[in-house]
Amino acid sequence: MKITQLTVEGFRSLRQVCWQPGDLNIIIGPNGTGKTNVLRLLELMVASAQGKLGASVQAAGGMDPLVWDGVAIDIRCVLETSQVDSLAGQQSYSLELRRLGNGSSYRIEKEHLSVAKSGLAPSDLLLRHARSASIFDLSCQQLATPEEYLQDEESLLAIASGPFAQNRMIPAFQKALSAIAVYGNLNTRADAPIRQTSITRMEHRVAADGHNLISVLHTLYTGDRQFKADIHSAMRAAFGEDFEELVFPPAADQRIQLRIRWKSLRREQSAAELSDGTLCFLYLLAILASPSPAPIIAIDEPETGLHPSMMPVIAEFAIDCAQRSQIIFTTHSPQLLNAFGAVRPTTTVAKWQNGETTLSTIRDADLAYWLKEYAFGTLFQSGELEQMV
After folding, report:
1. Count of CB atoms within 10 A of residue 29's CB?
2. What are phi and psi of 84, to 5 degrees?
3. Which phi and psi (to 5°) does residue 11 adopt?
4. Are 231 and 218 contacting, i.e. CB atoms less than 8 angstroms apart?
5. Closest to 295 in 3D by CA, of 213, 203, 177, 170
6. Is the pTM of this model over 0.85?
7. Is 99 helix (H, G, I), strand (E, B) or coil?
8. What tens digit of pLDDT does each residue of 311-346 get?
C-alpha cells in the first residue's frame, strides 16, 4: 500500500489539509507546527481498520482533544492509496467521526471504500451512513448490513473483513491499512521491556512501542542471512570493527536475552547495560532493514538519542527501504538531511498559521536547484527550505 493523497479536516491542528506524499518523505518545521499530528492521524486510521477505534479515542481523552480547537463537529479523513497486493487500481477510503454534543463520545457518521481501475469509473466496496450500511460483492451487487452488526464507534471496514467477506478487495485493503506502522521515541528506561529478557517467539515486525524488539531481532538475525549481514555492516559503520555480533543466550522460562559481543571485551554486554543510543539504533535498524517491512513506515524524529555519525547509516537504510515501503520521517536534524546525499526525499514544510497546520511540499525542481550549491542540512539550518513554499 502507498498513500497517494491524504485529506484531513478537523483533526487536532489539521483543520483542513491535503498532502500528497512520495515514496521517501521528510516533514520539517518548527516545534508546535503539527508535524506529529500527521502521524497521529495515521494511527487513528490504523486503529479504525483494526477494530480498536473506540479504545484509541478513549486513550486520547475522548473527542475534545482530537477535534480542531475543541470546537470542530467532525473529523474527516480521506486516504487515496495505490495498488494493494495484486489488485489493480486506486483505492479511496473515507471516514467521518461525528462528535456527540460537547462530550467525549462520537459515532461514525460516514464511511466509504471504493476502487477505481484504469479507465473505469470507481466501484463501491462498502458504504455507510450512520446506522445504514452496505457492502458490495465482486459483481457489484449491494448487500445490506443488518443494523445489529454495526457499532457506532467501530468501522464497517473492521467488521466486514472476516474470512467470509463477500468481496476479497475489502479484507485486502483492511489488512494493508492495519499494517501501517507508526513509531515514536523508544522507551529506554531501566525498567523498559527492551532491557529485560523476552519470551521466545517468532516475530518479524517491531511493534509501535518497540516492546518486542528483542524477539524481532532474534527472529530475523538468526533466520535471515541478509538481515544479519546488514546489522553487522551497520553496527561496524557506527561503532567500528570492535563490534563482533549480537548474541541471544537463553534465560529461565523459555526466555532469551539480548547481548552484544565486542572484540575488546571478555564479557558480552547485556541489553540492561547498553546505552540508550545503541538501543535506539538497533530499533531503527530492525524497522528499516526488515526483509518484510510494513507497507507504510512513519517515524517521529528518528534522530532522537543518536550520535550524528549514525545518521548516514539510517539514511542509507531508509533509502533502501523506500523501494519496498513508503517512508515518512519528521525531523529537526540537519545531519540526517545531509545524510541523504544526492537522494532528494519528498520534502514537506509544516507551518502554523492562524491556529492551524499547513503542509506545503517543496517542488522537486526548486530543491534540485538549491542542492547544486548547498547541502540539504545547510539549507534547513539557514531557513531557506521553509522559505521555498
Report:
1. 22
2. -110, 120
3. -105, 120
4. no
5. 177
6. yes
7. strand
8. 999 999 999 999 999 999 999 999 999 999 989 999
